[in-house]
Fold this protein.
Amino acid sequence: MGQQGATTTARPLRADAARNREKLLSAAREMFDEAGTDASLEEIARRAGVGVGTLYRNFPTRIELIEAVYRHNVDELCASGARLAESLEPRAAFEAWLLEFVAYAGSKRGLAGALRSALGDDASHVFADVHDRLTSSGDALLHAAQADGGIRDDVETMDVLRAVSGVCMAAPDWRDPAKTQRALRIVLDGLRYRPAD
Amino acid sequence: MGQQGATTTARPLRADAARNREKLLSAAREMFDEAGTDASLEEIARRAGVGVGTLYRNFPTRIELIEAVYRHNVDELCASGARLAESLEPRAAFEAWLLEFVAYAGSKRGLAGALRSALGDDASHVFADVHDRLTSSGDALLHAAQADGGIRDDVETMDVLRAVSGVCMAAPDWRDPAKTQRALRIVLDGLRYRPAD
DNA sequence: TGCGTAACCGGAGGCGGCCTCCGTATAGTT
DNA sequence: AACTATACGGAGGCCGCCTCCGGTTACGCA
């Protein structure tokens, strides 16, 4: 799942370098999850089994690491969308995807905040990019489910995502999967209702 | 403008202690303005002409300092409201007060954010308190202006404040007084319009 | 297969911020 | 004036940030 999108046209990373970059990314994701976006970078490097130097070479500034993790999460979410579309029937796939989106929204909470405050309003490029990929990935699932008749026709992906993330943000302890799932259930059921046409 | 609200029933501070506390508060306000809410505490102490020990004695944790500054700003805003009510005619007073609110909203930007993310949702007590004081202070000015006929009757303080802060937040560089004033002007003019009754 | 080198690794080290602790100073009291 | 509760302030230990460079390794080439 390509990690260097449109940024560099440079020569591909050397094998060990690529490995380390991946280890850093996943360590960072763990730590940001546990300790928020101002977790210790040295600890991240340590946990990745890598020297700090390597961390700083890959991500010269903290914000770049955060951004990479953020993008990485979105990547996974999209990939998982494609996977779900193949293994489940349309509505179930869409619902499962939303469930994963909740987890993503959790991490996004801190990440998006840190990005915004660090990049100021230059953060728009990141958000626009993410928005697009999320939309197109969600559209595929949603439209399939709609065509299949499992979900009402008068909603769009972003409507749903907004509703869902609204539920999470509003819930004080969105980390408790049981509670969020119950809340999410309400939205999901709402999606099945079909207005009289 | 008591600074120890409902927390301590303790003996009043010694004279020098009170002085230092005040110096710290104003230094903190400066620094938070310039460098955001994670400005160096040592630098704040330095700028206040006080040892770090003194800072930590008054505000054991960074978040307590932030909260104090936040409250302090609100205090000033309310006090200034009362002052304006005496020295200007009703509508002008209200408008002037809104202008000051903009400055406050600027600082609030960072402060409120830091509070929310640090206190989680236990921050509600702070916000409720602030909300109340803001409302009652604004009401006095607004109602006077409405009675005087300078401002339409069908708005409430919080409507106005929301509109105003919306303007500021939306404006990329709300720190430029000229631009914010121009934006603010639009809201102010809107307030003079009287719907046909 | 073996060699040369560009690419990469990693951690020591300098800096600055966080917070604590305690010897010293002073406001307020009698 | 003397006494004491209260407050001051900065040295010091710790930790995280980031840079820099001597050592290591993957990869192309013969």
